[in-house]
């Protein structure tokens, strides 16, 4: 019953003998636990989310921004290497017919002080060569499954501010795949609700000192098949393999990048 | 008539044959143009501030946050090396009898992509070893000229979140120099107005795409001699030797650090 997710735009894909995520028909997303500390970090993070559930203070976690977590489970790995432990999560794309999907890695620094020197150097080089340092985020993947528009990941990484504006405009246009000017037909239907959600997320990041999110992505989804009837806008955070405790400070790195992305969205909504 | 500023807490000091800033009795601050591109960058920045003065849009610059600029002038250098070009600025400490002063370098990254590899590596090492990366800012200097409290710059650089709370509490206490618990007697008188100003500054940084400010400091001053009568709270930005054009993005690095500092101030004000 397990299959490869149809609309994954970033991260390792489970194909051609590669270990990657799987989904079932009941709306669950199975993400293989990554090696080194990443797998255990993500399990720790999802587990701690539930344990904080009842805290009533400024750190109270807006759980609606996170995929539901259903523990871990050994399942047959996508690379046919046998049983492998997986996180069992909510399949965020379940129920969408023709989703438009965007994955935005937030923050101008994708590494933290706990990481190894090798990992820091690798991330820093990539951050410097991508839009991560200039813009405070990078678009890791985007797809319009109705018009089959899916720019290469490589072309997305080095986007200038101008390039980001163009991708955002296409993302909310009737036909993203054409070379003609994007009509931005769904800008208010999509970016309106997205912006509302992101301002709520921002308000939390201005006060929460529980976690710092490195290399974490914002996932934006809407239903393109019948967008005028129901756009089903979804805004979630995904990928928590590099989350660390906040140690008394807000996550200024994520917050700065989020504010930068919000500014682009506001401009896309109002022009 | 020129003399060494009495209450400078960060940056090069003009003493013992070192080139540093001077002040005159009329309230002007003479800052030597630094070598390499720094001096010319700062002249460019101050000049461009005035040229943007009449723009009525989201980039409209809140000029009250910047020292007034009176051009450049050749004056006798403090290291007795002869005439040297200086920026002529407003002396922000002019008119204070017993000022309490804090200099906070904002941002979790003090370098930018235009900098040389050597400079980037030097900054990155210092950012990693200081509170810059964990907290998104570092306190470069602090002084209470009434009680002669002035922690060493070195001790300030590596402050944890807990250490910052302690410095902030002392900064607004009757006698910062004692080892006893700070009384935080002036917390609301000082941090109240500071917070109001910083929230205005934050609102600008959420939209402005003119400049990115690296290695720039927030200068906080209040009059301690007769604080109950008039606290004369001052909030300014200083040091623009590493400002670069924004290129269509907000300054997410400065904004993130500013939000982090604001969170500490809010906590210091409300506890």
Automatic annotation (TrEMBL), chains A, B:
The keyword Transferase applies. It catalyses: 1D-myo-inositol 1,4,5-trisphosphate + 2 ATP = 1D-myo-inositol 1,3,4,5,6-pentakisphosphate + 2 ADP + 2 H(+); 1D-myo-inositol 1,3,4,6-tetrakisphosphate + ATP = 1D-myo-inositol 1,3,4,5,6-pentakisphosphate + ADP + H(+). Its EC number is 2.7.1.140, 2.7.1.151. SUPFAM superfamilies: SAICAR synthase-like. Keywords: ATP-binding, Kinase, Nucleotide-binding, Transferase. GO terms for molecular function: ATP binding; kinase activity. Belongs to the inositol phosphokinase (IPK) family. Inositol phosphate kinase with a broad substrate specificity. This is Inositol polyphosphate multikinase. It comes from Flemingia macrophylla.
